């Protein structure tokens, strides 16, 4: 490496190839890492009780970062087919997630369904996720697509801000998502524009709020048992 | 009693303003009397000429109707006995399980999700456990879920598939008046539930398949019981075939009813026996095997009629295939005596096993002696794992399994904490029930019942 060391050690053996000489040894650049929350203390407890001395610890909550090409295997084929519509791609634990902007969702779904190299015949549904800490993209709609022809499964994730929770409905492309979209609306307040009848499906029609959002309390009452009182689950000591 | 919105008998749930349109400008609320009376009453209301309302009636069937397969509300628009439009009203069994899981540890989540689709609890547990295991990175490999746990999971799931299909066939038979099918179906299901009770301690709500393995080892004598059950089922299953397969009344009620072809199935996202009744051999156990299904010898059962009868035959044949898998799993378990059923990683595995005491099954006294008398560290570890739980790395996973009703998958999201950040279950009943309208519009009311029975929705899974 350096000239001084070269005197003592073997002449060529310690020479480390430079980045330019062997680009294959350079770690792939990772995508943007987004912090979407914070974890405080050693055990996640709030209020009193963290006597470990690590009560001031602040750790970011970070989800798997975007992956760079090549993705490997059939992932690249699907990514090629969707290419201009993709925001970013995350590969984690062998599952591929395509992040797609709301405006491109319907075009992407049509491609996924109709393109001969993609052929995702089945949409398994949409699941809403509420990330209160992901500022500007609090509400995520997560679709799972299945190609029976090629036996592939992908995930498509669309994020919208809490202040404007509108995204296009996929009902026209995949009629199967009808009830799934109604459920996501019911539970998260995601508004699927173009859905033929976006009404509540599980909760009563006049229910206030969207129960599975993180800012919606779980509810419950304290329960007395053998002289002790157990608070409702969301008020118990929590370690998360 | 026939009343219109113009009288004082206002229906608070269906005010006239909500339903007013060109065709129907009045709401009639009818509560149980002779049909002639209703029809003549409607005639009177329409100034004697009958009008639209005389022919066109909307009936709410359920949510407490005995043949709607649970608390399912069917909204049927009728013309005589013919259904012109059919819609479902669901949500009567919504229990907020997904929300509740966010306030419990990862292991406790099993206890909740097992209660969703109460006829196939092991599949709910399985897809959740697979999702958590994928996030933990312990799906397979030497440090992953042990082989014996995988075999026990397969064994329990296939037993569960039999019990679930039996209930489907039994209740489906009951709803069309074939009561013997119901009695023998529940008779055999009891045998499966007895096996569940022997292995897990409970007939339902087992919480037995947990992230990292299964809760307990097989009890002594379980394999003999299972082999006895398989031998008995091989005698009993032909009874269903003899009772139903060529029964002219049964066939007349089922054949051609609830028709849905392959295109319809894929557009509406239907999987499971409904999809296989179109002749397409799609089964996640074959196409994306989990728990070592690829090492078992079994066939995917299909039928080519796309109707209720085909779905009945698919289910009947699938029970035979399940018996084949159970036999193979039992043979493997016989060679695995004493092997671990929980992952070796002590940071994930529940620290104590239950043990048989003089008063039944309970805490293992050996374990209590260790943590209370011998090892302070073991006590701390036990306390931490039980109260706090283990942490799961941030990310999301979706590992679907082939439940008796189709693709059941848990979308599991972790933020790196000790609790699920979000657990969403893609329940096949929920999805498949969307096809009710397509299957039954244009048919008789009696065929609606058959069509729904052939979808086999379980409302606990639909509403969650």
From TrEMBL, chain A:
Domain of life: Bacteria
Listed GO CC annotations: plasma membrane
Protein role: NDH-1 shuttles electrons from NADH, via FMN and iron-sulfur (Fe-S) centers, to quinones in the respiratory chain. The immediate electron acceptor for the enzyme in this species is believed to be a menaquinone. Couples the redox reaction to proton translocation (for every two electrons transferred, four hydrogen ions are translocated across the cytoplasmic membrane), and thus conserves the redox energy in a proton gradient.
Biased composition range(s): Basic and acidic residues: 32-41
GO molecular function: NADH dehydrogenase (quinone) (non-electrogenic) activity; NADH dehydrogenase (ubiquinone) activity; quinone binding
Keyword terms: Cell membrane, Membrane, NAD, Oxidoreductase, Quinone, Translocase, Transport
Organism of derivation: Nocardioides antri
Name of this protein: NADH-quinone oxidoreductase subunit C
From TrEMBL, chain B:
Intracellular or extracellular location(s): Cell membrane
Tagged with keyword Metal-binding: no
EC number: 7.1.1.-
Keywords: Cell membrane, Membrane, NAD, Oxidoreductase, Quinone, Translocase, Transport
Subunit text: NDH-1 is composed of 14 different subunits. Subunits NuoB, C, D, E, F, and G constitute the peripheral sector of the complex.
Function: NDH-1 shuttles electrons from NADH, via FMN and iron-sulfur (Fe-S) centers, to quinones in the respiratory chain. The immediate electron acceptor for the enzyme in this species is believed to be a menaquinone. Couples the redox reaction to proton translocation (for every two electrons transferred, four hydrogen ions are translocated across the cytoplasmic membrane), and thus conserves the redox energy in a proton gradient.
Name by which UniProt lists this protein: NADH-quinone oxidoreductase subunit D
Organism: Nocardioides antri
Gene encoding the protein: nuoD
